[in-house]
Amino acid sequence: MLLVGVWSGCTNTSSVRPSSAEEVHLFLLAGQSNMAGRGIVTADHRDPIPGVMALRQDGSWGPALDPIHWDKGVAGVGMARSFARAYLRDNPGVTIGFIPAACGGSSVEVWAPGIYFEPTGGFPYDDAIARVRAVRSRGKLMGMLWHQGEADGNPGRVDHYAERLTELFARFRRDLVAPNLPIVMGQLGQFPGKPVKPERMRVNDIHRKVAADDPRITLVSSAGLSAKDDMVHFNASSLDEFGERYARAWRELQDSESR
Question: Which is nearest to 104 in space by CA: 78, 83, 126?
Fold first, then answer.
């Protein structure tokens, strides 16, 4: 199918829509660099996946090719495409529309209305909300895939992280008028050879508690995944695996609701 339209200035979108016989599932991709993706792009990440689209920087829809994000020039392979492949196995016949909004280096503090984030030249929260609103009529907003916390795993920030993250998720649900919006988030990297700072351990502990306290939030393990040479970002193969894990977590979240 062709999912086409123009998004301009975060507000306008064309009326071209997919056939009513086809179901479009929209996913917001948000957080920081490991959601945006920093894996090395190879030819296989540039092959279109039938039925998987992504919103592009100019506001048009196109095939979901890595890099899907444009937050920084170093954007690369992320987890969206592997998530999509696994999701389509469970939901054959649907079309996926990704809404990329992750911003490399962003703390939870800057994910608030009216906050400009200079490293990516935009307003992380406002831009994410506007992009969803601009295209929401084209399909069903299924949920948000979130990976973030590296920027908050530092002294001074981690003390406020639990409160700010909980407030952020509540704000997303309120402003998107989606009180039961499912959220799948992932643990920070646990890379062999890199000692884990106490503040990063606290971030992962906070993630576990946030997920445990909300039946519509689930946490995905990062155990066994590998980093690039920078020891900060997951490498491409690990991001492929992470996307699969996000899809399994999504399926389990939906299964738990149906029981």
Answer: 78
With 0.85 as the threshold, say if the pTM is over it. yes
Residue 15: per-residue pLDDT: 32
In this structure, of 106-115, 167-176, 190-199, 225-234, the range with the lowest mean pLDDT score is 190-199
CA distance 245 to 67: 20
Q: Compute the CA torsion angle 87, 218, 137, 93 (nearest 10 deg).
A: 20
Q: Is residue 59 predicted with pLDDT exceeding 90?
A: yes
Residue of 92, 94, 95, 117 whose CA lies nearest to 104: 117
Integer Cα distance of 37 and 233 in angstroms: 8
Burial 212-238 (b: 16+ CB within 10 A, else e): eeeebbbbbebeebebbeeeebbbbeb
* Domains parsed from the chain with CATH numbers: 24-258 (3.40.50.1110)
Residue 226 makes CB contacts below 8 A (sequence gap 6+) with 191, 192, 234, 235, 237, 238
The residue behind tokens 């909980």 is 166
